[in-house]
Fold these 2 entries.
Entry 1:
Amino acid sequence: MFRKIQGNARGCLIYEPMFIVPYSMLTMYATVYMFQLGVNERQIGWITSIGLVMQIFTSILSGYLTDRMGRRRALLYYDLVSWSAAALIWAVSQNFWYFLAAAVLNSFLRVPNTAWYCLLVEDTHESDRSQVFRILQLIGVIGGLFAPLGGLLVNHFTLVPAMRILYVMFFISLTIMFFARNFATHETEIGIRKRSESSTLQVKDTLRAYAGAVKAILAKRALLIIFGVYICSNFQVTMQNAYLSIYLVEALNMNDALISIFPAISSVAMLVLMFLVVPRLQENRAYRYMIGGFLLMILSKVVLIAAAPGQISLIIVSTMLAAAGSIISSPYLEAVVANSIDDDQRANMFSILQVLVLLCISPTGVIGGWTYTIDPRLPFILMILTSMASIVLMLVLMRSKSVAASS
């Protein structure tokens, strides 16, 4: 698959393991680390929500900064701020205020997200974009196999010292990656043109460009529906990242060091599907595959809720079902979103999409913290409901497409 990918997409993807591998080693422990340093469930919720609200503002700026600075420069500068600097704060955190400061810095990630997304797809042919996102997912899957190494460190040093070591490793790996990727990529043709145009633009011109992008989104019913599905998907990811680890440790009585095996199990399941099932999938049935993926995600949460404390077999089944749902639905969703956005307005429209996503999911942390204190299963019930909403939206989209085709 990778031989087909050239140019900026190749330059972006080849260094992605330097982010994915250390991140997979620590991500399952991030909220438990906060918990052990005295941050309670509601404070974790507030940190999550405040970070997301901050990301709304950085998302609004992201399109402008990506066009004004150029894709490569915006990517390098704001990656250093949002990831390298935040990783150092996470490494030395002591209480709620440290984590809040790191969340504020990390909120600037929306700028490099937009810049990276533009670099990844602008010089890539539409027919190759689902392949790009599948390779990206494969990198994430392989990175998940390294998650148990984090568990070994936790088992040896205990959780807090191990997490401090992991965050320092994360900082070093990311910083090297950012400079290496900058060297391996070039500014896109659209990026050069947009940077030239932006140098003479005033604030009102930028606002007018955003207004034009909003009108273009509102004028396309299919695009609105796809954005709705994308928002539901991001809601689930945010909720799961915040509360799955705590649920496994607190509600299901899992050992701290043991929970790192689940990302590895997920990765193994994804690899099997990626080589045995995914090659048989047909691009023209993408919508049906996405619905199938959402159904598997619903089933995975039902199994997780049904699991009794210490019942590791059901947790493994839930993990594998979630992995199957993700590997089937996510690359198609990303490709459909990428192909729905006009290249000439990509930076602005993607930043608006991020704003819409964040406006909808920014209360996730507070809602998750509040519902978790009532019943630890409630956040996962909310995830089930959002998957159901995604299925309904996809059915509406399929129906509107068939009606348009028949007419």
Entry 2:
Amino acid sequence: MQFAEEQVFEPYRKWIMNEIFNKRLFPAMGIFRVKAVLRAPSIIDPEDRKAMLDFIAERGIMLVRDLIPIAEDVLGTTIDESKFSPEYLDTPIAQLAGSQPIILDPEGNGDADDLQERVSIIAKRLLRKGSAEVGAHV
């Protein structure tokens, strides 16, 4: 997707805006001090995102506050941060992960002590808690 965006769609988008809008349409309408630009889509490699999140979560520098924009982007929704105390929002995820009870794997066998799994479960709990407080999907 990124290759196609860089090699095909971005040059074509720039050409359309410059040739059709900026050089022809706007001057014909008497508009001379405006330049139209189309933004590119946000293309994020899931593996790069996962590696970055793993890195900052493992080092204890990811805060609960940092999960909110990520969850909003992934879910395509808005989460009201005012429902949570500032102290809670500034809590490191690693600290919350360490304070969680033993997590069972999907089959219910043993404990899954993987930090990524714990962070995922905490994020899901936060989203469910926010939804329950509102009484509707956040």
